[in-house]
Amino acid sequence: MRVNVHLVNVQTGSQLWAETYDRKLSDIFGVETEISKGIAESLQAKLTGREEQALAAKPQTIRKLTSHLRGLALKDAANYSSDALFKAIEFYDLAVRL
Q1: Which residues are paired to 21 by β-bridges?
Q2: Following CA atoms 15, 13, 29, 22 in sequence, which dihedral angle do they give, to the nearest 10 degrees?
Q3: What does the pLDDT look like over 44-91, one tens digit per residue?
Q4: Which of 28, 39, 32, 25 is nearest to 55 (CA)?
Q5: How far apart are the first and last CA of the chain?
Q6: Are 94 and 70 in contact (CB under 8 A)?
């Protein structure tokens, strides 16, 4: 996937910062942190420790939720197939470990 980001001053219409990110689709949420940090750096903003922690935690939280939802979907679609149920358990386990 490719994400093009442009930070524009709306008063002047001038571009303040731009970056292109080429990533695997599985890393879609990880690029969010990179974009946020890039914007902060371009604005010369100093992030507090709490803000940096929040940026780091967000992708992890999304991965937890995604794993949990995959487990639910497999469980619901499994029609009591043991293979699907074991795969659902793997996703639940991943969510708990994250």
Answers
A1: 3
A2: -40
A3: 777 788 877 776 766 666 677 777 777 777 776 656 677 877 888 887
A4: 32
A5: 24
A6: no
